[in-house]
Amino acid sequence: MENTPKVVVEPPDRRGLRRISIGGETVGSAWSLRGLRRTLKRLGYPKHMDVHDRSSMCWRGGDSATWPDRTWRRRTTGALLIAGLLGSMVLLVLIGIPDAFGALTFAQKIAGWVFILSGALEGVAALAVLDFWGKRQSKYTGAVVLLGVLIALGTHSMLCFLWLQEREYTRYLFVYIPLWFWSAWALWLLVREKAWRGTPHPKKFAAGVAATALLATVNLAYSVVYEPSATPVLFKLTVRFGKPVLDRDGQVLHVPLTFHTRNIGKVPAYVINNDFSIYGISAKLSDDVTGELKARREAMVGEADSAELHTEAPEWETISAGVTADPGTHFEPGEEFSYEKIISLPAGAEYDSIEAHLTMQLMRKDRGKIDAEFSTPHYSWDKTEGQFWCPPKECGEFVTYRGRLRHNNNLVNVTRRPVYVNALWTVDADDSYTYTFLSSSPDFTRPEDPGKAEKESSRESERYGVLSLSAYSTVSFAALLNPPAE
């Protein structure tokens, strides 16, 4: 025993852990006397070794009764660190998966993978807590845990900032706000523990973390702000009359009409709503010719299409109305679609001209995705439609298309309340109408505050890139009856 080196138990550190060394070499550490005996047994010492024998044991900074470790506190703190990191991991992965596998642009996919990889780092950091908050056998675990906490704090700060811009209710709010407070507490704890201590080249480590955070921020800003706004939506709508044909009896005039839509830009787009209207226009000659344009004021305030000298305000009559493309249809760049129709008119109709209108509401596909339910029509006069039913005396009669709208950057989805796109189409005795609006309210047909609902729709329409296009064509009725010879 005299030649056997003494077992030295060092003073407890600030957490209560005491290092064990033999012959100047560290062989382990212990939180308690029981842990010390397990370490000695593993090294081949007798199970019931006399720890008070000064010839074989040397106690520094306290004797065999000095074990200041608070087991329950240490384990609770470690469990909180692990729980927060695992919670952040799940949240980051849930945010990243839709973008990584479903985004339309490369930059948005990269942003999604950044979140997934950040979540993976959170998982690694959670495993590193077991060592760092334990006996710290590895000198790298402190830096790994610190990196995980910094990622969590940056991510949850960004989510809270995005939420504060609108302050809308979302169930994710009860996840990232508590996690923000957790990450702030965890960072304070790790700074107090100097978690970077022992890491080789700590300055390079800090520079690497800063560079990674900067790269992720620039990439995110590019995918969220710049790229979706830099490329415009370019569509070409055309309305073209074909060669008219009289029937055998010369009583009915058949006029071919073609509505053509083509995506001439680089951005795919959804058709939210659309309709066409065909009008017969007639105007009477005026007996009161004063030398001045008639109805100038009405023309200037928009109550008439133009000011005329010899004719009164024209009368418009709806001949035909309908839709060309189903709501929810999408056009990829270069894709085109034609809708052909033949309108039948009495050869003796007292029209001066025939005019065809095509209107279309589109939404950028690179900003959002509409659920498949949007393609299902709902009829307001059908009581079995549930929330879509509206008394005809109060609302009229219309067809509604409604679907959940999800932003292509999932950060928006987790910091904003759900948004639904609604497309209404109705035909009354005078005209055909379409109306498109975005709403988070379940009772979208009769909002409590119409003004507030209109502002919300305008804001969301701008966010998702909703725009309206139109085209029209006019032809003289006399030219239809007597087309020029070829």
UniProtKB/TrEMBL annotation:
The chain crosses the membrane at residues 79-98, 110-130, 142-164, 170-191, 205-226. It comes from the Bacteria. Coiled coil: none annotated. Keywords: Membrane, Transmembrane, Transmembrane helix. Residues 443-463 are annotated as: Disordered. The keyword Transferase does not apply. Residues 445-463 have a biased composition (Basic and acidic residues). This is DUF308 domain-containing protein. It comes from Streptomyces coeruleoprunus.
